[in-house]
């Protein structure tokens, strides 16, 4: 009987853990202090022209500012939500702001996109 109880407990813990996905971004360091980063440690950015949980960065813009992609089964957690993009793909947002990387950042900690386009792009802060 003890074995069934232990197995049931392990199963319950395993299943409850599946409901909690890891956050889509990590916290890294830059010259501006703590920043949100992707899994590779590259700085994430927000764009002032995004509004109401919708990305305004599509086409050539998205080629230079790749969206932080969210898988089809992604679930909102903490301050993170998932938005639908114009092309039908899904993107992570933090506190309602879609997240992007910048193609000209070469290594973790780079923040060369901060202030780009007359200050419209900003380092995403935790």
- Report the span from N to C terminus: 47 Å
Over all CA atoms, what is the radius of gyration? 18 Å
* Poorly predicted residue ranges: 5-20
Shape label: globular
Largest sheet: 3 strands, antiparallel
Name the structural class. Answer: alpha+beta
Notes on the protein architecture:
With 126 residues, the chain is α+β, with helices and mostly antiparallel strands. It has helices at residues 2-18, 60-64, 116-119, and strands spanning 26-30, 33-37, 45-47, 80-84, 90-94, 97-98, 121-123. 21% of the residues lie in helices and 22% in strands. This is Lipoprotein with Yx(FWY)xxD motif. Residues 1-21 form the signal peptide.
What's the layout of helices and strands?
Blueprint: H1 2-18, E1 26-30, E2 33-37, E3 45-47, H2 60-64, E4 80-84, E5 90-94, E6 97-98, H3 116-119, E7 121-123
Antiparallel strand pairs: 1-2, 3-7, 4-5, 5-6
List keywords for this structure.
126 residues, alpha+beta, two-stranded antiparallel sheet, 3 helices
What's a concise summary of this model?
The protein contains 3 helices and 7 strands. The protein has helices at residues 2-18, 60-64, 116-119; strands spanning 26-30, 33-37, 45-47, 80-84, 90-94, 97-98, 121-123. The radius of gyration is 18 Å and the shape is globular.
């Amino acid at each position: 009987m003890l074995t069934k109880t232990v197995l049931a407990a392990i199963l319950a813990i395993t299943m409850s853990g599946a409901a909690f996905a890891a956050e889509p971004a990590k916290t890294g360091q830059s010259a501006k202090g703590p920043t949100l980063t992707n899994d590779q440690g590259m700085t994430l950015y927000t764009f002032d022209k995004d509004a109401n949980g919708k990305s305004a960065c599509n086409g050539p813009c998205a080629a230079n500012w790749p969206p932080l992609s969210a898988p089809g089964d992604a679930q909102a957690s903490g301050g993170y939500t998932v938005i639908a993009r114009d092309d039908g793909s899904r993107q992570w947002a933090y506190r309602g702001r879609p997240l992007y990387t910048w193609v000209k950042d070469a290594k973790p900690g780079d923040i060369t996109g901060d202030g780009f386009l007359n200050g419209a792009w900003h380092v995403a802060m935790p």
